[in-house]
Amino acid sequence: MSAARPLTTLRTLAALATLPLLLTACGYGSASTDDGKQTPAAAAGAKKLSADEVKIGYFPNLTHGTALVGVQEGLFQKELGGTAIKASTFNAGPSEIEALNAGSIDIGWIGPSPSINGYTKSGGKNLRIIGGSASGGVKLVVNPKKIKSLADVKGKKIATPQLGNTQDVAFLNWIADQGWKVDAESGKGDVSVVRTDNKITPDAYKSGSIDGAWVPEPTASKLVAEGAKVLLDESTLWPDKQFVITNIIVSQKFLTEHPDVVEAVLRGSVKTNEWINANPEKAKASANAALEKLSGKALPADVVDPAWKSIAFLDDPLASTLNTEAEHAVKAGLLDKPDLEGIYDLTPLNKVLKAEGKDTVDDAGLGTK
Prior knowledge:
By secondary structure, this protein is of the alpha/beta class. It has helices spanning 11-14, 65-72, 75-80, 93-102, 112-121, 166-177, 201-207, 219-225, 252-257, 259-278, 280-295, 301-309, 319-331, 347-355; strands at residues 32-34, 53-58, 84-90, 107-110, 127-136, 138-142, 157-160, 192-195, 212-216, 229-233, 244-251, 311-313. The strands form two sheets. A seven-stranded mixed beta sheet has the order 1-3-2-4-11-5-12, sandwiched between helices. It has a five-stranded mixed beta sheet with strand order 8-7-9-6-10, with helices on both faces.
């Protein structure tokens, strides 16, 4: 495997490894929370695998619905038997990467940007992407009184979650495709790109300080509930309307030492996605119940219904789209061209898929040799 190249030294990106900021389609706030209240106990008397427990991490967000539902419904625990799950939730991509590096978690659900960042910053030594989880769930929503067409976006103030995050990169790439110019770091140019925490984006919209936002769910649907309109669904910009928004990563150390546990978690993920797709209404209610346990408040129907509908849950990590997202970051000047060879190890997932009678998935030439 070739050595991975580091990120550029932009002020914000250079601090990604330590700041509690988000590089994926998730919320903001505290670094992590022990999710013990939601985690089911290991089955009494059941046979343990090679580890007493597996520590998993994910975000309290609908795009991490596989983890939310899999834990809530006990589908992971069923596959793990006597090996217990210890779950932690994160509101920041870098903090989850830090937790993985420190051994505080073994497996995590996370977006493409922190996966790429974590891999390149470690020289390809700290993680592997081992599976997919979700696609879609990102929209450009705007004030219909100020923006009536895509051309009207020029000259307006549009929010993204954070400089260099997955949605920020996608929006900068879309702006470039329109022939408009924006300085990536400052956000100034033909469009004003306003980096705004997802938590406060709805208030920023209500106050009129932004004219719209390129954001993930459920933030997009929260804005729609405030009167915004969906101008563009990002999925329409991708082949087959699919692009990775959440994938599954694992510590390389844990993968080497406990392949049976990794395989069990992946089996739980595959079965959870199958259950979600077979029971969309029950799965939506389960995810919302999990969010209520974690945050103390469930999402209202006018937010959760459209948000859930726009997310596809799948096992395929859509590797080619991760590579494309990296190319978009390079094009925007936010990332030196990375060497992503070896970022994927899909052998355990494909073993599970074959056993379940499902089609195997491809690593787009970015797998381990």
